[in-house]
């Protein structure tokens, strides 16, 4: 029997509430499909910062490196710690473990309402592959002549050939796999998210590498769109997209719009992957910690449960992952259980229990 060691960082705000529901699903599906899971909780986050002056201990990466995966609730509470400080925990893990792929599936489950009229369960089923360790989030730059009339700041994006080409390779391989499986509406296409008309160094470099990488995948269709045009096409014709590859900043921005296509942030899950599995990968909902809702039991746990599904898929427990996906779809399409963000009154726990019950009753 395979046994997986999973580090759990519930984090801030609603993090613990949604993480609890995700862990219930993880334990149940492990029992159902005959594998083991051992979890260890770490109380790192904004409350830790208030006590210790840092979001996490200095040896965090040493502590985490031997785990098979990291399961994260949410990080951040601007009322306690400035966001640019609290983000350091995520960035340290992503970069320290070379989690260079941020994978964000954009799928609208049947039965879910979305504010975007063109979005249907038939038209919205694509994936954004975001570069996750460099680019615009490289934290290179500084403040100069602070508090003077001549004050200025520099923020430098770092784009390397290795960093660009490997995330693009991942995107093309994913498109090839989705084409083979017949997943999505427009299969076998990679869209390059760019802005080379204005960013005449970083994005011109990015585009050039995209063309070079694409030459190695003649069976995969390609196109290129400026990031502003992509936001428009997300709304106008989301069925156009299969796999989108984007830089760190652009991928971050367009996936929030993607979350609206799939019904809201409560349905949006993400994975920070080290595809070669030299280091543990990290799985999380992308909705943030929502401190104002903490302790009220109203946060939607679906994104967190989706992140469990992605974690199991990454670990190779495909049947368990598929069972979770089926249970989520069945509960959501039934329309009887709805959390506050869905226009209902059911609690975080009630949604989690509904998915858990459906999972355990399924074949």
UniProtKB/TrEMBL annotation:
SUPFAM superfamilies: Isocitrate/Isopropylmalate dehydrogenase-like. Keywords: Manganese, Metal-binding, NAD, Oxidoreductase. Residues 5-355 form the Isopropylmalate dehydrogenase-like domain. The keyword DNA damage does not apply. It comes from the Bacteria. GO terms for molecular function: magnesium ion binding; NAD binding; oxidoreductase activity, acting on the CH-OH group of donors, NAD or NADP as acceptor. InterPro entries: ICDH/IPMDH, IsoCit/isopropylmalate_DH_CS, IsoPropMal-DH-like_dom. Coiled coil: none annotated. Pfam families: Iso_dh. Its cofactor is Mg(2+); Mn(2+). Signal peptide: none annotated. NCBIfam families: PRK03437.1. This is Tartrate dehydrogenase. The lineage of its organism: Bacteria, Pseudomonadati, Thermodesulfobacteriota, Desulfobacteria, Desulfobacterales. The gene is ttuC.
């Amino acid at each position: 029997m395979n046994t997986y060691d999973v580090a759990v960082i519930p984090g801030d705000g609603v993090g613990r509430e949604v993480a609890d529901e995700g862990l219930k699903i993880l334990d149940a599906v492990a029992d159902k499909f005959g594998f083991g899971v051992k979890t260890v909780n770490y109380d790192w986050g904004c409350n830790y910062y208030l006590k210790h002056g840092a979001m996490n201990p200095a040896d965090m990466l040493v502590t985490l490196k031997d785990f098979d995966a990291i399961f994260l609730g949410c990080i951040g509470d601007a009322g306690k710690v400035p966001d640019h400080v609290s983000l350091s925990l995520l960035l340290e893990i992503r970069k320290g473990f070379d989690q260079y792929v941020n994978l964000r599936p954009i799928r609208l489950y049947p039965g879910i309402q979305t504010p975007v009229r063109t979005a249907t369960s038939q038209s919205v089923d694509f994936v954004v592959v975001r570069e996750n360790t460099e680019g615009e989030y490289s934290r290179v730059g500084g403040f100069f002549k602070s508090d003077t009339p001549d004050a200025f700041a520099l923020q430098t994006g770092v784009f390397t050939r290795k960093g660009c080409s490997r995330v693009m390779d991942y995107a093309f391989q994913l498109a090839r796999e989705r084409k083979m499986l017949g997943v999505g509406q427009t299969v076998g296409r990679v869209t390059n998210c760019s802005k080379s008309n204005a960013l005449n160094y970083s994005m011109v470099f990015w585009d050039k590498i995209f063309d070079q990488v694409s030459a190695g995948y003649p069976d995969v269709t390609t196109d290129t769109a400026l990031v502003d045009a992509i936001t428009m096409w997300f709304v106008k014709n989301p069925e156009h997209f299969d796999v989108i590859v984007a830089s760190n900043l652009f991928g971050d921005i367009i996936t929030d719009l993607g979350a609206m296509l799939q019904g809201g942030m409560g349905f949006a899950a993400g994975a920070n992957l080290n595809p070669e599995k030299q280091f543990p990968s990290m799985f999380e909902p992308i909705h943030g910690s929502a401190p104002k809702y903490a302790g009220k039991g109203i946060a939607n746990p679906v994104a967190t449960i989706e992140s469990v599904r992605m974690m199991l898929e990454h670990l190779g427990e495909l049947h368990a992952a598929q069972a979770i996906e089926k249970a989520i779809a069945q509960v959501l399409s039934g329309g009887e259980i709805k959390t506050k963000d869905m226009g209902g009154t059911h609690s975080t726990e009630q949604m989690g229990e509904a998915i858990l019950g459906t999972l355990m009753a399924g074949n």
